[in-house]
Design brief:
The complex is a heterodimer of chains A (about 160) and B (about 130).
Chain A: H1 7-26, E1 30-32, E2 45-53, E3 57-64, H2 66-77, H3 87-111, E4 116-118, E5 122-125, E6 135-141, E7 144-151
Antiparallel strand pairs in A: 1-6, 2-3, 2-4, 2-5, 3-7, 6-7
Helix pairs in contact in A: 1-3
Chain B: E1 4-8, H1 12-22, E2 28-32, H2 35-45, E3 49-53, H3 61-70, E4 79-83, H4 88-96, E5 101-104, H5 109-117
Parallel strand pairs in B: 1-2, 1-3, 3-4, 4-5
Helix pairs in contact in B: 2-3
The chains are: A alpha+beta (about 160), B alpha/beta (about 130).
């Protein structure tokens, strides 16, 4: 079992997972945006999924701007982004996207010998900088900045 | 005969996506938000196909599938698993329980329609 992976490899997994999910789900292209730091926003949707292994646990956090969530929900479900959608619907959408991204990261972890399962999505509003050591990445989709944070159950090299 | 398809998923997003996807076809789509509700709706509606999520509260997809297979009236109902998790263990488990197919979320519309179309006829609605 590989217990040591460089952060660059984890970042590559994250980019691939986010790109596959967003492009398949929404049809929009995703580009890396390391040059565009994302400012914290109190209205951002933060969806977190635990990655549960036999001996340790990690987590995936997906931070989505509110305007992206409304636009993407309209693209996927029909209607316009101005249509009223309940907070529960918007949170469910964010949680489902994060769940799909986490599913792909779990597949990568299994591939390197670390089987894990997904926890139930937890979705809230307002991004705060994480206190633990994690790998982060930022991407742009249709002009919206998307941020992914990954506290891998594998220790980084 | 209009095919009845039961979608069992705790996500309103996924249930809405499936409702939009099957709207142009002459079929009846029923919904349930967890395995317990899914068993109740299945007993009532006798669906021709169940699209079943893996991770759900109350009763998850595997537990629902096990109970479905123990029910003499419902045990032969075809099931397609729809899930974000595609680990070899979970695929092996559902294969043993006789699922017809396994689709990883997110899926492309045409991919899911092709798999569903192999099990139930998907005929466009005359007024769509």
């Amino acid at each position: 079992m590989n217990t040591s992976l460089p952060a660059s490899e984890l970042t590559r997994w994250m980019g691939t997972a986010l790109t596959e999910v967003v492009e398949t789900l929404l049809g929009g292209s995703v580009t890396n945006s390391t040059q565009v730091p994302i400012p914290p926003t109190p209205t951002a949707l933060v969806a977190e999924i635990a990655l549960i292994g036999a001996t340790s646990q990690g987590a995936v956090r997906l931070i989505l701007p509110d305007a992206f969530v409304r636009s993407a929900a309209a693209a996927l479900l029909g209607g316009s982004e101005a249509d009223p959608r309940s907070e529960a619907q918007l949170k469910d959408f964010g949680g489902e996207v994060a769940n799909m991204v986490a599913g792909r990261l779990a597949s990568e972890l299994r591939r390197v010998g670390f089987p894990c399962t997904l926890g139930t999505p937890s979705v809230s509003r307002g991004w705060v900088a994480p206190s633990e050591t994690i790998v982060t990445g930022e991407w742009l989709c249709q002009g919206f900045p998307l941020r992914l944070e990954f506290s891998s159950p594998l220790p980084p090299a | 005969m209009t095919p009845i398809i039961l979608s069992v998923d705790d996500s309103i997003t996924i249930r809405s996506v499936l409702a939009r996807l099957f709207r142009p076809f002459d079929c009846e789509l029923c919904e349930a938000a967890n395995g317990e509700e899914g068993l109740a709706v299945a007993a009532l509606k006798r669906p021709h196909l169940i699209l079943l999520d893996y991770n759900m509260p109350v009763l998850d997809g595997i537990a629902m599938l096990r109970r479905l297979r123990e029910d003499p009236e419902l045990k032969r109902t075809p099931v397609i698993m729809l899930t974000a998790e595609a680990g070899p263990e979970s695929i092996a488990t559902v294969a043993r329980l006789g699922v017809r197919d396994y689709v990883t979320k997110p899926f492309r519309d045409e991919q899911l329609l092709a798999k569903v179309g192999r099990i139930v006829p998907l005929v466009p609605r005359l007024n769509s």
